[in-house]
């Protein structure tokens, strides 16, 4: 959908309706801090079951929120390789550092290492210098003049070892977890997402091989501006976990809810493999053509219709339906009010002495 056609309103409405459904764990990466809600804006926190089914991780001082901090000692080379572009020499170097000391390999890259020692390891000095710069930017680390490593972001060398595990456990219990990435750089957001999603994917793959997966809820991962992780150019240079999930996630009960206004730059195979698409208004010709070409049903006669869809109007095309279905999406605030009215109407009022 184009900007202003109600993408966030649609996703918030879906997530609100599913919030207390423990058959599905929902993981939301929120780059605009619009899903949880604020004092002036309604959000998922306004659901009556939110205390039981909703968790919110942020670096803001929000009441009831969980601290968005990760221990960098749990980061492995695969997380780095799946988030930033590295040369073969740089990839080999971080693997060598990781194998030497898995708990402190990132800190060791920033240490003053004698050139002779690097030569024995088969690592070039320039390679280490570039790695320091790239990791410093990615992890928001700064090396002081005296060699001290200063942690300025959400990664720490001590404490917070259980953050990823806690998130995965909550999702496995059917909860909704919002990760507020609105105050982070784009590369930081993708890196955090990669760490959490990689852990979730690994956990469910293990359960699948142990024949225990059927007892767990399905996991839906909401990612905004989806081409950042499943775009053609991205997947040509980086083999990340999102590409794996888009291609084979359904075998392990994990799927993506990919939000974008530019479907044409998503990898063609991935776009075609997405079983259900909710198409909102989009005036851009190449984007409409990409949606039509990858739809489960023949939408060739709807080229003009897609361009003229108003806010709150959409077309659903899915392998689970025999034909495309036009839908109307309620305004999120109205949807909440309607839900409260229905809940109140179901409440049985009992007077003293009567049953």
From TrEMBL:
Pfam families: DUF87 (PF01935). Residues 1-197 form the Helicase HerA central domain. PANTHER family: HELICASE MJ1565-RELATED. This is Helicase HerA central domain-containing protein. It comes from marine sediment metagenome. The lineage of its organism: unclassified sequences, metagenomes, ecological metagenomes.
